[in-house]
Design goal:
The structure is a single chain. The chain is α+β, with helices and mostly antiparallel strands and 450 residues long. It has twelve helices and 13 strands. The strands form three sheets. Strands 2, 3, 4, 5, 8 and 9 form a six-stranded antiparallel sheet that branches. β11 and β12 form a beta hairpin. α9 crosses α10. The chain is elongated, with a radius of gyration of 39 Å.
Length: 450
Amino acid sequence: MFKKILSNGVYPDNPEVLNRKIRTSNLIAFSTIAILTSFSPLFFYFLHPFDMFMFILFYGTAVINFPLLKRRKYMLGFTMNIVMAYLYFIWAILAYGWEANLQFYLVVMCLVVVIFYDNKLVIKGFWLATIGIFFGTLFYMRGRTGILDLGPEYDELKHNVGYANLFTVFVLVCILMLFFKNENLKYQKVVTEKSAIIEEKNKEMLDSINYAQRIQSGLLPSKDELNDFYPGSFLYFNPKDIVSGDFYWFHKKDNVTWIACGDCTGHGVPGALMSVLGINLLNDIVESSKAHEPAQILESLRAAIIKSLNKDHKEEYKDGMDISLLKIEEGKTTLTYAGANNPIYKISSNNLEEFKATKQPVGLSHEMKPFNQVEVGYTKGDHIILFTDGFADQFGGNSNKKYMYKPFKEFLVKIIAESGNAEQSLHREFTSWRASVEQIDDVCVIGLKL
């Protein structure tokens, strides 16, 4: 029965925090009814009109709390409980005098206000009202007896009623403490259960992403494969998340080697899906001989991406990739390059030369212009650097600013001149730069030694 009373107005679709407030309001209303009922013999014995009117008013207010909460009039029910409690305090002090010991109810009310309201200004307002009521009644009743002055012969009764009130406050505080202890145990149980569910879902998700990473890794060429093509080359690949929106691609057909470095829209799972699409489309275009030149391949790749993603609405320009693509033919001293927003660098004898890309992505864009391609002459021992924007755009350093491209170029020239382990040098520089700052994007840097 008591559990049913506490659950009045509690609904499964309510937030648990709100349901806790509802149960608290029911407990206070029930306690108020119980306290007034226990003191009712006094009210009916003296039969003072003022006393009887206030008794009926407060008793009725406590009873009304239950239908209000059942009809989801929560804030009205909460506020009525608190306001009536303050009025009950003022009435009792005026009626019985300061010796009634009802001032201790105010301590309970300060606690209840914190439970019912989330707004700090409202809480502070009630606390200020509590202080004002306390000192206001204390000042007013100084030297005065209560309205219900029963005479000296009832002094002992007044003292006993005061002690009873004090004991009632003590019991009420104990009930509230036990109630909230029980509520906290319930809440902790719910949190533990939900945490276990979240942990299980998180494990399932991580397992799926890790499996996706294995699939993506299977599609990406190995670092050894790059060195098989061009000994002394290096590859620094550092995804922001487990899977990457950056990708690299090597392909050899007859006497032609194709090398690409791409940066797909987004990172993580969405970027990884785009990278898988890009790798498969590049393989299909080159193997089927649909295009023979880098610019033509990028044109075919753009058309295939638009078709694959069913882009029927021209106002959508989000999905696609930035990419640099090289074609290197055996026996030649030039290579052919085409890029979509991704330039390349050539480092020769400690000098760096930049080759610009076409300023558009591979995908839908506002101006669907043809991709440009250039011939890049080289000599044996030169390096061609293909990269995405993740390294240069990373925040870090003393001022928490981007690394930027000028220092990136200088660092590339430095590590190539030192002829050390370029991949380790890039990793040390990147991690040292960002320090505790979160990595903001995938990173891919390919150093091709010709």
